[in-house]
Specification:
Blueprint lengths: L7 H6 L2 H21 L5 H10 L4 H11 L2 H13 L12 H37 L4 E6 L2 E7 H26 L1 E2 L13 H11 L2 E2 L10 H28 L6 E2 L19 H22 L10 H29 L2 E2 L1 H9 L7 H10 L4 H18 L3 H6 L2 H4 L4 H7 L9 H9 L2
Parallel strand pairs: 3-4
Antiparallel strand pairs: 1-2, 5-6
């Protein structure tokens, strides 16, 4: 299923016409290499270069009889070339064409996805810098922990996507592998120099060794990488959904004029884009599992992987392209509420400063166990009574025997938590 707003460049890449065009390019390059070796006449090569073409609809028609797509393709092309069409596919097996062309398609898809990642990384950087000092509470287990900034959250996402970009670059390198070595990879009827020539012209690396196919651990790495990227988007989208909850409302998706959130409740503004991305990430992870299942094949090759790849090749890359563009737009237009962040930061009446007090008491000579006990006791009382944490500490003689009121007040400053913010940002952005 192609997403409704899928990018044309990516969907065109997987069109039958483009796939057959790759096949034809490979077949002609093989003929060039054979002619260079003197194995087919130069006149035949020229004729093939001038006349070789195809008609996708005609190929489909032939395949109804042959039940074999590559043979149907070769039948159509050879008919257009004429007598010299007999030199096409000399010494090759179907997988030479299929696997080498699939490498080209997945490589080209990766290039589009790398562009998507660049755009998202740039947006995340802008958000990180814009909200570098926007104070909010950090949470662990969903419970208030200590202060952070929204910019720091965005910086975390930025770095994760930088790692994902590096992963995809590596997967692109791994998948950019061709194979022109015949029926079981032994070059029985074609010289290794032909493979070298074809792969060099296509910008691929020859597989150092192959069976009838390029080994599927390469493809599993590629699709697993896409699943990791999708899982990152799922993580970020889930965070936006959590921040948009009515009780929190620190950030929310942009809600455009005329947009509707519910057929029954006109007041609803739902995080539909984030939910969409979280849902699609589940599908993407299933593609990774399918690609892992493709690694184990019978002997030198069976055909069980082929049906899988015909689905997950286009689906996973088109879907990833869609998800990255959707999430980039979501972040770009994300509505942030700094005042609400401050209000939420203060709602626990100062208990988020507990570690600051704990460490100061230890510094002043109290044992860690005793300091933890007295701070926790007052924090629990604050939770249960609703009283301000600092006020409770001021009333605690054990605490005040180690600290003055002024020293205690100095601990309740959010800047204490963010003194190394510039260091973190400089380490990430070099600024």
């Amino acid at each position: 299923m192609i997403p409704r707003y899928a990018r044309k460049e990516m969907t065109d890449l997987w069109s039958p016409e483009n796939r057959y065009r790759k096949w034809l390019e490979i077949e002609i390059l093989v003929c060039e290499a054979l002619a260079e070796r003197g194995e087919i006449p130069l006149a035949a090569l020229k004729n093939i270069q001038e006349k070789a073409d195809f008609d996708a609809e005609r190929i489909d028609e032939i395949e109804k009889t042959t039940k074999h797509d590559v043979i149907a393709f070769l039948t159509d092309v050879a008919a257009r070339v004429g007598e010299d069409g007999r030199f096409l596919h000399m010494g090759l097996t179907s997988s030479d064409i299929l696997d080498t062309s699939l490498a080209l398609l997945l490589r080209d898809a990766a290039d589009l996805l790398l562009d998507d990642l660049d755009r998202l990384i740039a947006v995340l950087k802008n958000k990180a810098l814009a909200y570098k000092h926007t104070l909010m509470v950090g949470r662990s287990h969903g419970i208030h922990a200590e202060p952070i900034t929204f910019g720091l959250k965005m910086a975390n996402w930025h770095q994760e996507m930088v790692r994902n970009k590096n992963r995809l670059r590596q997967a692109r390198e791994t998948i950019s592998t061709g194979k022109i070595s015949g029926a079981v990879g032994t070059f029985s009827f074609i010289h290794p120099s032909v493979e070298e020539y074809v792969c060099r012209k296509l910008g691929l690396k020859p597989a150092p060794v192959s069976s009838q196919i390029v080994q599927r651990d390469r493809h599993a790495e590629y699709f697993t990488t896409l699943a990791i990227i999708a899982s990152s988007l799922d993580k970020f989208s889930q965070e936006i959904r959590l921040l948009q909850r009515t009780e929190v409302r620190e950030a929310e998706e942009y809600f455009s004029p005329g947009q509707k959130g519910s057929s029954a409740m006109p007041h609803k503004r739902n995080p539909v884009l984030s939910e969409n991305i979280s849902g699609l990430s589940r599908l993407m992870r299933s593609y990774a599992l399918a690609s892992l299942e493709d690694v184990a094949l019978w002997h030198e090759r069976d055909i069980s992987h082929s049906s899988v790849e015909r689905v997950i090749g286009p689906d996973a890359t088109i879907l990833m392209d869609f998800m990255l563009q959707r999430f980039t737009g979501l972040v770009e237009r994300l509505v942030v509420y700094p005042e609400r962040m401050l209000a939420n930061l203060e709602m626990t009446r100062g208990v988020i400063f507990s570690q600051m007090v704990l460490l100061k008491l230890i510094e002043r000579g109290m044992s860690r166990e005793a300091a933890y006990a007295v701070v926790q006791r007052n924090a629990m009382q604050s939770w249960e009574s609703g009283r301000n944490f600092k006020d409770l500490l001021c009333d605690d003689g054990e605490v005040m025997s180690y600290l003055t009121e002024g020293e205690l007040g100095a601990l309740f400053q959010t800047d204490n938590f963010l003194k190394h913010l510039d260091f973190i940002f400089a380490r990430i952005f070099g600024e």
